[in-house]
Amino acid sequence: MLQTIRLWFAPAPSIPQKPESEIQSLYPKFRFRVLESTFLGYTTYYLTRNNFSPVSKEIGEALSYSKTDIGDILAVTAITYGIGKFLMGALSDRSNPRKFMAVGLFLTAILNFSFGFANHYWIHLFLWGANGLVQGMGWPPCGRSLGHWYSVRERGTTFAFWNIAHNIGGGIVGVIASHSASQFGWQYAFFVPGIIALIGSVYLYIRLVDTPQSEGLPPIEVYRNDYPPEEKEDHEAELTTKQLIVEQVLMNKYIWLFAIINFFVYIIRYSLIDWGPTYLKETKGADLLGGGYSTFILEFGGIGSTILMGWVSDKFDGRRGMVSLLCIIPIFFAFLGILFNPPGSLWIDYVLFGLIGLFIYPPVMLLGVAGMDFTSKKAVGTAAGFIGLFGSLGRTAQGKGLAILATNYSWDVALSAILVSTLIAITLLIFSWNLRPRG
């Protein structure tokens, strides 16, 4: 049985290379096809992952869940997502992304339906934890696909554009979840995204492709004459599991640096995604829809800046750490503004949420790209999974930690903890200031 599953997920085999005239015609079409399908697919993954937070307060009221209960659900999901992203990353590097990503989206749809039908805490904890695990099947196959179809010198710009899938998915899910819940009940915050995910899984299976060689095309390095430093001869060499995990990741000091930085960046990012709507409802007078729109503003605030900063990082020889540091500094002052903004001026909080979104998403994207810069394209999923694991641990820390601080002390204390995390991220990013791909 396991052997059958392994063979079904195996990468698509290479086929004889097409004539040069066909290569020049087909390559741009397939590149767009991969970018488009992974973009829409990952956007849909967000609809079934971030739909809990916008309605968590309403779920708590309906089922008598405390902040600690909600925090535990967020924490266990972050842990399983981190584990899933690392494990699934290693698996995706040895799998066909078309099948891998489509199956993951199908499974998360089923778990969303199940979550909506359940009404017991331990069942919800299990289901949302399982959802975090299969959500790990989303990013790694995207990284593998883009790493095979886009070369190193266009990586920052390409991933910057692709990365706004985070913002679009994360933004519209707040609106979809809150509107569905306000019209039909909290359960529909999971039913509606689940239906969209089922459709998306079929679309991915039909539309996404594997490597250029599986379509009769040369590797991207050959097509663009753009080889990573020190990798011209072996850029297509397959890696063993030991090489993927130990040599390319665990013994790579740069991957460790980016992973630790990502821990604190995710505390910043998810503090407002997981707790922002609840914070505004409890301290600033926002209603259900107002809390949902805060997520929309946060996510969409990062679209333009992510594209711009990805391009800037390419123009500065791939100095992703430098650009990330310059983005994190304004976030510290935005959190100070939220902390000291009194109730009654909700529009100021919305502006500051948008400002944080403007500056947090470039580092979120660039840290993942930096991981790719310092590893083989054959280990993209594994490296991204490892960096993502630390990010998920950061989300776990804030999900549980902010619940404890807000419950036992105050929201002001919780926001102060986020400010400390922001300062630590700034300090660590200083060490990445001069790092360039394979530098």
UniProtKB/TrEMBL annotation:
GO terms for cellular component: endomembrane system; plasma membrane. This is Glycerol-3-phosphate transporter. Keywords: Membrane, Transmembrane, Transmembrane helix. The keyword Membrane applies. Pfam families: MFS_1. The keyword Zinc does not apply. GO terms for biological process: phosphate ion transmembrane transport. SUPFAM superfamilies: MFS general substrate transporter. GO terms for molecular function: glucose 6-phosphate:phosphate antiporter activity. The chain crosses the membrane at residues 100-123, 188-206, 254-273, 293-311, 323-341, 347-367, 379-397, 409-431. Belongs to the major facilitator superfamily. Organophosphate:Pi antiporter (OPA) (TC 2.A.1.4) family. It is a multi-pass membrane protein. InterPro entries: MFS, MFS_dom, MFS_trans_sf, OPA_Antiporter, Sugar-P_transporter_CS, Sugar_P_transporter. The lineage of its organism: Bacteria, Pseudomonadati, Spirochaetota, Spirochaetia, Leptospirales. It comes from the Bacteria. It comes from Leptospira wolbachii serovar Codice str. CDC.
